[in-house]
Fold this sequence. Notes:
Layout lengths: L3 H9 L4 H17 L13 H12 L4 H9 L2 H4 L4 H23 L7 H16 L2 H16 L6 H21 L3 H15 L1 H13 L1 H21 L4 E7 L2 H11 L10 E7 L4 H14 L8 E2 L12 E6 L5 E8 H9 L2 H7 L6 H14 L8 H12 L3 E5 L5 E5 L4 H8 L1 H5 L1 E6 L2 E3 L11 E5 L9 H4 L3 H33 L4 H4 L4 H8 L5 H9 L5 H6 L14 H4 L20 E3 L11 E6 L3 E6 L13 E3 L10 E10 L4 H11 L3 E10 L4 E10 L2 H12 L4 E6 L3
Helix pairs in contact: 1-2, 1-3, 2-4, 3-4, 3-8, 4-6, 4-8, 6-7, 6-8, 7-18, 8-9, 8-10, 9-10, 10-11, 19-22, 22-25
The chain binds manganese (II) ion.
Manganese (II) ion binds next to loops.
Amino acid sequence: xxxxxxxxxxxxxxxxxxxxxxxxxxxxxxxxxxxxxxxxxxxxxxxxxxxxxxxxxxxxxxxxxxxxxxxxxxxxxxxxxxxxxxxxxxxxxxxxxxxxxxxxxxxxxxxxxxxxxxxxxxxxxxxxxxxxxxxxxxxxxxxxxxxxxxxxxxxxxxxxxxxxxxxxxxxxxxxxxxxxxxxxxxxxxxxxxxxxxxxxxxxxxxxxxxxxxxxxxxxxxxxxxxxxxxxxxxxxxxxxxxxxxxxxxxxxxxxxxxxxxxxxxxxxxxxxxxxxxxxxxxxxxxxxxxxxxxxxxxxxxxxxxxxxxxxxxxxxxxxxxxxxxxxxxxxxxxxxxxxxxxxxxxxxxxxxxxxxxxxxxxxxxxxxxxxxxxxxxxxxxxxxxxxxxxxxxxxxxxxxxxxxxxxxxxxxxxxxxxxxxxxxxxxxxxxxxxxxxxxxxxxxxxxxxxxxxxxxxxxxxxxxxxxxxxxxxxxxxxxxxxxxxxxxxxxxxxxxxxxxxxxxxxxxxxxxxxxxxxxxxxxxxxxxxxxxxxxxxxxxxxxxxxxxxxxxxxxxxxxxxxxxxxxxxxxxxxxxxxxxxxxxxxxxxxxxxxxxxxxxxxxxxxxxxxxxxxxxxxxxxxxxxxxxxxxxxxxxxxxxxxxxxxxxxxxxxxxxxxxxxxxxxxxxxxxxxxxxxxxxxxxxxxxxxxxxxxxxxxxxxxxxxxxxxxxxxx
Length: 714
Ligand code: MN
């Protein structure tokens, strides 16, 4: 147990004797009024205010703050009165104790209105003096450290409140060590299993990690020294909660969390330029990862955090996160607003520290005119987390998202199923498009439809890692499913051609050998790699041919291709049913054209004309022979360009010819070039086949004043 002499030892270095006496007096008073009270742990109640005062002394806060730490529960929990406090310790301490008493009466309920009202009271009380906030945080730290003595249901509630309110407040004040400790303690009680598992896994690799950390530190230090800079390099594992949050938000395993260790260069010099110099030293040493450099010196965070952040590719090809700061910046980063009070007495303290406090107060101050509790909540949260938006569920719960989030992010935050089946959203009762950017205070309702699926387009609008991961995973599963179907069709057909039964082959032992050969483990895998075009169906089938029928040498590309007919609306296909076949838009094949298919990953077969230049240079393994097999007559779009002299009435003549051949013009565009008196007419015609198209070409060519007629590709 902490004793009063321990606290006085801590404060001796920076407080004057009268202040030390005041602290001793507060101790005696607190001890007498708390006499006989016990904590749930069975210890005397006094241990609690002592520990709180100890934390405040470690933070080197002023005498009134430490005195208040010792007295913070006296008015609330003992017979002591505010008047008594005022008489013995003066106005300042009485004001601080009163502030804390007000807060301790507030509990945060779950209903929005109640929650908002309580938040409002708490923030008002706290923002009256920033020291009230720091004492409250120290109080919460000690309560969290001794949370195991509370009954289980209370533990959860207190831990939730800590994560929801106190950790963000500590962050807002820039007191990083408090935020880290509060988050880890709350995490430990809220997700006990996950916490234990993570701590255990991280501990297991400690030796390995320490060796690695030492290595990287040494390399950086050597470079810093070599360039004549003074400073130290630190490397330490990030706190458990931040690792856990990353793992659950990005749905990744611990092994995939690359930035487990954060490295820091802390420079002796206060010259900002040296930070940038150190950055260039690091970037010369290791290649930076693009888009990962953040300059919080030029643009400090709202809580006044300043540093340079970068991620580089380290000595083992791994990502390494490095922060660069001066000593003062580092002090602010760890202790935030608390660092202010340290410089108050004696040593120089900077004017902009005052500015900083003013800014924080302004942000914490709540505008009285915000009568609507919802408005108030989103306003408050905005002040605490400026890079996020706060919206409501129809039931009134608050949800937070990064700025720029859309209803898709909202839908996935509810449930994967809601996200997958999301077709639209209502914001404040009005229907909005899925790309709508959520605004603070919006009430969002998701409209779902069973059987609906995510689309690739959603990736353009989703910003949260969770939503993006889910959409990607759906696309991947879907691509695989389609590839398996396609692979099966292609293989069945190829086997049938060789009079082999696919259904028998798949039961054979030989197929297992094939799995080993391609390092796959199931029939589905095999179908998928064929469907993706990684392995040609022919190659698979050859394995099962009798010796004498196996081709000696690989056949030339042309002959190797297999025949395949296409099934798409209007075209029949023998054997391959329901395979995704689409016409490539680059060359728009029409019946009569020589065509070829290209197996595109997860998207079925794209049909191109034989002469399409886009096919050249593509993986020849994926090219398949396809044939027209018209089932019912239908039209196909084809692009035609007519270059002619710019003569009146010529366009009408061309259109007449086209119409007379019973061909529809679905699009026409004319561009005249005054320079050479020529007109370029681009048409999209709907034709039945190549014969019909050739007819129209010939007919137009015969016209006077027509210079050329061509089929064009995009
Ligand atoms: Mn307390």
